[in-house]
């Protein structure tokens, strides 16, 4: 069974809902299992979050907290973040900045250095609007590429990605939602893109797990 980690940082609950859809897509692939975990706020977060932000953390308080070591133990990872000023959230960045140990581990025959090398990873986001969502995805990609991870995208093979009939988030780089757009968010099409992204990640992660290791 391929164990695929889905980690997310969420404040208003939109990234959490996207993470659930990613997990549904992963679980729909034979031989794959999604492991959903949340990234908690970093020190000093109270000074960052605006008072008007609709804090819905109680909706996902039952979700376990992600540990850096979880990245080592999985066969693939999906990372979800809110979009803050065209970038990943400070909580997501703080979590990723603690992963240096996975690159510089002391010699260990069981868990060698560079343990993330080649591991499949994908990124999804939630923003108030469509401003710089792709930039936020790419901001996470920078860290993933430094570790030599295999970046998985949605591409253009999902019908909802090229459907321009309504305002929606998400695109060829990764799924996303516009929380301030009209209607219920995430929308059905935004969630469909997320599920497709989860399925693609699962298929790549399953193949990576079963690769020859000689």
Name of the CATH first level: Alpha Beta
Total helical segments:
5
Count every beta strand, where a strand is a DSSP E run of 2 or more residues: 6
Structural class: alpha/beta
Full CATH superfamily name: Flavodoxin domain
Inertia-based shape = globular
Average pLDDT level: 88
Largest sheet: 6 strands, parallel
Total tally of structural domains: 1
Low-confidence sequence ranges: none
User: How large a portion of the residues is in β-strands, by DSSP E?
Assistant: 15-25%
> What's the end-to-end separation, in Å?
21 Å
What CATH calls the topology is: Rossmann fold
Order of helices and strands: EHEHEHEHEEH
Radius of gyration: 16 Å
Query: What's the CATH architecture?
Result: 3-Layer(aba) Sandwich
What is the helix fraction of residues, given as a range?
Answer: 25-40%
Question: How would you describe what is shown here?
Answer:
The chain has helices at residues 14-27, 68-73, 90-97, 133-146, 188-209; strands spanning 2-8, 32-38, 76-82, 120-127, 150-151, 176-178. The protein has 214 residues and is of the alpha/beta class. It has one domain (2-209): Flavodoxin domain (Rossmann fold, 3-Layer(aba) Sandwich). Helix 1 packs across helix 5 (188-209). The longest helix is centred in the C-terminal third of the chain and has 22 residues, at 188-209. The mean pLDDT is 88.
Quick overview:
It contains five helices and six strands. The chain is of the alpha/beta class.
């Amino acid at each position: 069974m391929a164990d695929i980690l889905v980690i997310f940082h969420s404040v208003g609950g939109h990234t959490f809902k996207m993470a659930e859809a990613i997990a549904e897509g992963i679980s729909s692939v034979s031989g794959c299992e999604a492991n959903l975990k949340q990234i908690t706020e970093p020190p000093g977060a109270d000074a960052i979050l605006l008072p008007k932000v609709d804090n819905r953390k109680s909706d996902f308080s039952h979700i376990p907290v992600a540990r850096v070591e979880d990245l080592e133990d999985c066969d693939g990872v999906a990372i979800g973040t809110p979009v803050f000023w065209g970038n990943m959230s400070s909580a997501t960045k703080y979590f990723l900045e603690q992963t240096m140990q996975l690159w510089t581990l002391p010699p260990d025959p069981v868990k060698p250095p560079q343990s993330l090398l080649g591991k499949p990873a994908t990124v999804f986001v939630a923003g108030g609007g469509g401003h710089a969502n792709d930039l936020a995805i790419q901001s996470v990609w920078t860290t993933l590429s430094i570790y030599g991870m295999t970046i998985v995208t949605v591409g253009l093979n999902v019908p909802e990605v090229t459907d321009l009939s309504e305002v929606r988030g998400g695109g060829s780089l990764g799924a996303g939602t516009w929380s301030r757009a009209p209607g219920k968010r995430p929308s059905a099409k935004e969630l469909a893109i997320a599920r497709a992204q989860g399925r693609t990640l699962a298929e790549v992660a399953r193949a990576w797990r079963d690769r020859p290791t000689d």
